[in-house]
Amino acid sequence: MKTLGVDVGSRYVKLVAFGGDETLFMETVDTIAFYTACRTGNGLDIGRLNFFRGRPLDFDHLVSTGYGRYNVKLSGASVISEI
Prior knowledge:
mainly beta; five-stranded mixed beta sheet; 9 strands; 47% strand
């Protein structure tokens, strides 16, 4: 099972993908650039990014955290507090 974690901060968005016990990739993106790419009328839809820096974003589960964690909209996503 592949999991994508998205930490939406006020300055940067951190993305990390796991496949079982293996880290598949980790990236940091400027928050404004991330919002521009993923913004919809209802919030953020990470599904709008079919590829991220040449990598397919195919995952079975999404976890969002951070300042903007409630802005990430995707069916079945888990929202957790960063505290």
